[in-house]
Design brief:
Layout lengths: L1 H7 L16 H17 L1 H40 L4 H16 L2 H23 L2 H4 L5 H27 L2 H9 L4 H31 L11 H12 L2 H34 L1
Helix pairs in contact: 2-3, 2-11, 3-4, 3-7, 3-10, 3-11, 4-7, 5-7, 7-9, 8-9, 9-11, 10-11
């Protein structure tokens, strides 16, 4: 950017900004066009499927977005814990990361929905505390908890790798200016690390969006569960899952393009 500004000062030279649209948007357009074609020209059953699963689509997006925001927060704290000089904090966060990454996500979701409430009820009986004895799991909350618990562990490693990729001289320079460790991390290290980890964080979001389909197993009426209900009522497995797959594909392709755009903007601002 500095070179471009200098060149602009030279008479007869003009620097133009490359504002080309991402060429991969054509694939998004093609898939959206296919969904539209099926819904308009073959409304029975494709438009019926879209209408039936529309509420599940909203649930899928809600679960994904809420879980992702919580994942960003919990993952950051877990990464800082693993980098902490406090041995106890480092041990606890390391155990959490290894356990969460070592157990399949589906098993974790089943644990939070079926086993965790039983543990809470058992604790209530032990303490003679009636509200805990009557505790019942909320499917939506347990789905978000399960996704956050699992994906925050993976994202913590992304954070940690990004932080460790920043030269140590950056932290030393900040400390020499009188900044505390927390201030150096907040104002110097993390802003640079964010640019490094943006692509893998975007990939984690897309993976989370796809894996959100697993919450249908714990009574969350997401798009996948609504698709199963439509198939059971209509006996149209091929049409149902073609449309569900296309809807997921639209969401993931759009998410990938948005992540690519943010990445390009970040790289341009860093120059």
């Amino acid at each position: 950017m500095r070179i471009a500004k200098e060149v602009e000062r030279v008479p007869g030279f003009k620097v133009t900004t490359n504002n080309r649209i991402d060429s991969w948007w054509w694939l998004v357009t093609a898939v959206v066009g296919l969904v539209t074609f099926l819904a308009v020209f073959i409304p029975d059953p494709y438009w019926r499927i879209i209408r039936f699963v529309s509420d599940g689509l909203i649930i899928t997006m809600g679960v994904t977005l809420i879980a992702f925001v919580l994942t960003l927060i919990v993952g950051l704290f877990a990464a800082l814990g693993r980098l902490s000089k406090n041995g106890l904090i480092q041990l606890v966060t390391t155990i959490y990361v290894e356990v969460a990454r070592g157990v399949p996500l589906l098993v974790q979701l089943l644990f939070w929905y079926f086993a965790f409430p039983s543990l809470i009820q058992g604790m209530g009986r032990l303490l003679q505390y009636r509200p805990l004895e009557r505790y019942l799991a909320n499917p939506f909350a347990m789905a978000i908890l399960g996704l956050t618990f699992c994906y925050a562990a993976y994202l913590s490693e992304v954070y940690r790798a990004g932080i460790q990729s920043i030269p140590k001289g950056q932290n030393e320079a900040a400390r020499s200016l009188g900044m505390s460790h927390g201030q150096a991390m907040r104002y110097i290290i993390l802003p640079q690390a964010v640019r490094v980890i943006l692509p893998p964080v975007g990939n984690e979001f897309i993976s989370l969006l796809k894996d959100s389909s697993l919450v249908s197993i714990v009574a969350v009426a997401d798009m996948t569960r609504r698709g199963r209900e439509f198939m059971a009522a209509s006996f149209l497995p091929v049409e149902t899952w073609i449309m569900i797959a296309l809807l997921y594909l639209v969401m993931t392709l759009i998410s990938a393009r948005v992540v690519a755009w943010i990445e390009r903007k970040t790289q341009m601002e860093a120059r």
